[in-house]
Amino acid sequence: xxxxxxxxxxxxxxxxxxxxxxxxxxxxxxxxxxxxxxxxxxxxxxxxxxxxxxxxxxxxxxxxxxxxxxxxxxxxxxxxxxxxxxxxxxxxxxxxxxxxxxxxxxxxxxxxxxxxxxxxxxxxxxxxxxxxxxxxxxxxxxxxxxxxxxxxxxxxxxxxxxxxxxxxxxxxxxxxxxxxxxxxxxxxxxxxxxxxxxxxxxxxxxxxxxxxxxxxxxxxxxxxxxxxxxxxxxxxxxxxxxxxxxxxxxxxxxxxxxxxxxxxxxxxxxxxxxxxxxxxxx
Amino acid sequence: xxxxxxxxxxxxxxxxxxxxxxxxxxxxxxxxxxxxxxxxxxxxxxxxxxxxxxxxxxxxxxxxxxxxxxxxxxxxxxxxxxxxxxxxxxxxxxxxxxxxxxxxxxxxxxxxxxxxxxxxxxxxxxxxxxxxxxxxxxxxxxxxxxxxxxxxxxxxxxxxxxxxxxxxxxxxxxxxxxxxxxxxxxxxxxxxxxxxxxxxxxxxxxxxxxxxxxxxxxxxxxxxxxxxxxxxxxxxxxxxxxxxxxxxxxxxxxxxx
Lengths: 282, 257
Ligand SMILES: Nc1ncnc2c1ncn2[C@@H]1O[C@H](COP(=O)(O)OP(=O)(O)OP(=O)(O)O)[C@@H](O)[C@H]1O
Ligand SMILES: [Mg+2]
Known about the structure:
The structure holds two protein chains of two kinds.
Chain A: H1 11-51, H2 63-71, H3 73-110, H4 112-127, H5 130-141, H6 145-169, H7 173-181, H8 186-224, H9 231-240, H10 244-273
Chain B: E1 16-26, E2 32-42, E3 46-50, H1 57-65, E4 72-77, E5 82-85, H2 97-107, H3 112-125, H4 141-153, E6 159-163, H5 171-188, E7 191-195, H6 199-205, E8 208-212, E9 219-224, H7 239-256
Parallel strand pairs in B: 3-7, 3-8, 5-6, 6-7
Antiparallel strand pairs in B: 1-2, 1-4, 8-9
Helix pairs in contact in B: 2-3, 2-4, 3-4, 6-7
Adenosine-5'-triphosphate binds next to α1 of chain B.
């Protein structure tokens, strides 16, 4: 006896109602934060003009002055160049963190004794205040580009290690047995089962690490201040010179960089695994 | 204990595909799941096993498949072509139906062209043609189970192990898949060892029903089922069928207490 499976759904109607729903979703996700933003700008103006007297107004220059300072040609070029350098350090540091973190986790997933030997160090790395190590890193690696990347890696590494390991180990036991029944080797299991299954967790880790990489790039730069200035150096220069409008502009650029990198990796993750994995839980 | 998947498959010498003799299983934590189980599955047989939850039915299949060795007794498997369908479909969510069905052949190093063809054939057999490009998350429970069945069919198994494959499905889908399975059984000539919680399903599908006791599981009774294949769905409403189901249920209750 044969049975016919149900016909594929009518794609057209489905797609259209999905679009409508998506559009609605979009407004409801963007509107509340936007209102909060406008509210904050209001509070900002209120503090600047109602709370601070003229002599202390430099503590919080009004938003339009910050915008003006940002678009002042000299400052703009300065900030953009710094942004470029910091972005480069963050991305290079992140790339290293991803590669090292994934390899580290894969090594640990292959044998319990490797995990027992190496995992404590991942945790230690997470627990020591990296800031305390920054001067030392400067001593060892110089106060320029490589040292900044290293700080970045150290700050961004842990989420990659722990997320990848979690992903590799969360493979469904039934799926594992499916492979065992065919006498699949370790490499086959890693590449055809564990690694694909871990991808959602890896991308989740990547998103967190991306944000941390920006922090690392700015912190390293803030401390070392040698070589070409990044956003960190710029922050300390503007602070020292009491150029508060420029300082605020730089802070916003740094924040936007963090958000942009976070969003970029969220997007990449969705592109790669969103088809089969439902990220909507986050 | 010996597990002997004979490489040269002396198919003509015997009809026996699987034999347990006094098999017992005690887990390292001290749980005894099975004790003194003796059971033979021959070519042309479809044996169903019913028993209370936790009596070691899954363990029995795991021993037969070689996933876990028994702690006592003899386990003899006379084929290397074993299909194993789990309770969950265990599909890889990142692979579409076609490539999920190809998986086992792929793991066995079958060339791409050949396994594509085999998978296509298996997909047709379970009635899923047209869904090759669908990802598991877009399939219903029944379609996932069909995909899982198709995946095992690509191995062209001589011995097919089923661990409550339809347990999570609704009644209608389950009955439909039972008929599909009977059709496959008559067409593909495998021997089946099928575990279920449903007495009615056990009787409907099988040539023989085995009843197991509560833990530690052992066989308390067995009933041959004489209805001809392919089974007519309406036998479910006959008196003989009802009587047989009654007997099995009774044995199940006796063994449980
Ligand atoms: N790896 C294990 N270690 C210890 N005990 C186990 C292990 N696997 C199974 N058991 C125990 O062995 C007994 C039999 O388990 P099994 O899964 O074979 O039962 P089952 O008959 O398939 O039950 P169900 O019908 O609920 O699926 C259970 O009591 C279970 O707790
Ligand atoms: Mg079970």
